[in-house]
Amino acid sequence: MDLSPYIVSLTQFANTHLKGEADHDYHITLKLDHSLRVLQNAQIILEAENISGHTADLAQLAALFHDIGRFPQYAQYGTFKDSDSINHGRLGVLTLRDHPFLDTLSDTDARRIKAVIGLHNVKQLAPSTPEPVATLTKIVRDADKIDIIQIVLDHLSPQAATKPVVIHDLINDPLRYSDALYDAAFNGTIGDITLLRYCNDFILLLIGWLAALNYATSVSLIAQRGLVERAFSLLPDDAKIVALRKRTDTFVHNGNHISE
């Protein structure tokens, strides 16, 4: 499938939200670059997991457009925090309805992609989600999480310029983290994003995502890119974090479960 026209359309749409203001434009460009990397991650997952044909075509389009709601969200609200603005997945569906990005597709395929956009940011995908939407959403969710982990770690590194919007205006205290986020990560469950208070909480949330990934390829990509190592390098070196690191390493090496 030739994705070039779709990439051009998304790029042009993103560029309409630029203002010529450095900080504003940084966040618009960040989301465009993120969308393209999520597409690349999805392509790696598709190839490694032997998913091809029409399903692969739809997965790539869904990955490319998964965050299209982020551009109007940031333009209107100046934040990427859904709880302070609007659900960006739902806004993405509305945006796709109002623009001709998917007009070359059948009505059925366009509806499927919109469904994926609306579901890509839910806390957990319902087991009753029908196929092929379930598979498409799982691919996009994994591809998205892989790049979000990298983006957050990049912005939390000591040498990074402070970008409060990206890190949700969290408190940067190198020694503190919340018990609720730690417990979720340790138990291999998804933490509650609304409970984030410290930057370390965000890192713990990302570590907890590992057990929520749908494909072994996704876990491998995160490990190969050194993201687990980077995440723990930013956390305090206390006994609880050491225990979490051991548990996480076991999961990554096993690739399929949190050990008891």
Question: Can you give a write-up of this model?
Answer:
61% of the residues lie in helices and 0% in strands. By secondary structure, it is mainly alpha-helical. The longest helix is centred in the first third of the chain and has 27 residues, at 22-48. The mean pLDDT is 95. It has 12 helices and no strands.
What key phrases describe this protein's structure?
mainly alpha; 260 residues; Hypothetical protein af1432
Give the helices and strands, then pairings.
Layout: H1 4-15, H2 22-48, H3 53-65, H4 70-77, H5 88-98, H6 107-119, H7 133-156, H8 179-186, H9 199-209, H10 216-224, H11 227-233, H12 239-254
Helix pairs in contact: 1-2, 2-3, 2-4, 2-7, 3-6, 3-7, 5-6, 6-7, 7-9, 8-9
Total number of distinct structural domains: 2
Task: Name the helicity range.
Answer: 55-70%
Q: What would you call the structural class?
A: mainly alpha
Helix-strand pattern:
HHHHHHHHHHHH
Describe, in short, the structure shown.
The chain has 260 residues and is mainly alpha-helical. The chain folds into two domains: 4-143, Hypothetical protein af1432, CATH 1.10.3210.10; 170-254, no CATH class.
